[in-house]
Specification:
This protein is of the alpha+beta class and 212 residues long. It contains six helices and eleven strands. The radius of gyration is 17 Å and the shape is globular. Bound molecules: coenzyme A (COA). The site of coenzyme A (COA) has 17 residues, from helix 3, strand 5, helix 4 and helix 6.
Length: 212
């Protein structure tokens, strides 16, 4: 596995790695630090890509912590790092894995950029967000909105959020190849604001919370 992106501030650490089939061997080096249940849960995934993505998450976490770390999941699927005092978030896309550790709130998402995003923009973007898209940069910009909403969804960690109404991104202009913008989780009468950052890494869009 190779590190292709890393950034940090005093509260957050973010890393993106690329992996291949050798991740299965790298994962083997960790298994005596993990519980038998965790190892079985990961090894029992029949889908090769999915299994390798899970393994890559654990290997990249080991890279950031210097040890394996103990991860459990809440009833909504949110990962909880039981061994260290950090909020944690994972994302995978093809051969990339992204991991974020935060003393505050972690939320990260990586996606490949494709024109297929055009078919679903109305399902997750509201009108002011859609109005900020320009034809020349439509796919990349719309993917950043998608990643932002997924990262905020993971930060919240529960399932009842409607992307168009409860996860709001302050409309922003796309500037290559990195930038900062704002997003909020709006529920009932409460609104929680977050700063987000993005990076374009080849054909991949990466968005993560930034709790500086
Ligand atoms: C759960 C979800 C966010 C995962 O995103 P994804 O793009 O499919 O996959 P990613 O690789 O980016 O993320 C997977 C990671 O999300 C994390 N995750 C799953 N559920 C989570 C939750 N409720 N809270 C926080 N993190 C969660 C897990 O850590 C998982 O990785 P792991 O299994 O290796 O630990 C996504 O499947 C989802 O349900 N999104 C909401 C769907 C929705 O409401 N869409 C409406 C708009 S059309």
């Amino acid at each position: 596995m190779n590190l292709i992106f890393k950034t940090a501030n005093p509260n957050d650490t973010i890393a993106v790695c690329i992996f291949d089939e050798t991740i299965e061997n790298e994962f083997l080096n960790l298994i005596n630090q993990l519980s038998p249940e965790e190892v079985n849960d990961i090894r029992n995934f029949k889908n090769e890509n999915f299994r390798r993505q899970k393994m890559a998450g654990r290997v990249s976490l080991n890279y950031l912590l210097g040890e394996a770390g103990k991860v459990e999941y809440n009833e909504h699927g949110k990962p909880l790092l039981k061994s260290h005092p950090f909020d944690i978030s994972f994302s995978h896309a093809k051969d990339k894995v992204a991991v974020m550790l935060s003393k505050e709130t972690a939320g990260i998402d990586i996606q490949d950029i494709t024109p297929r995003i055009r078919k679903i923009v109305h399902k997750y973007m509201n009108q002011p967000e859609l109005d900020s898209l320009k034809e020349e940069t439509y796919d990349i910009h719309a993917t950043l909105y998608w990643c932002a909403k997924e990262a905020l969804y993971k930060a919240y960690g529960e399932r009842q959020l409607i992307f168009t109404d409860n996860i709001i991104v302050e409309p922003f202009s796309f500037i290559p190849d990195s930038g900062t913008f704002k997003g909020s989780i709006v529920l009932n009468n409460s609104k929680k604001d977050f700063v987000l950052k993005y990076e374009i890494i080849g054909i991949f869009a990466l968005v993560y919370l930034w709790n500086e």
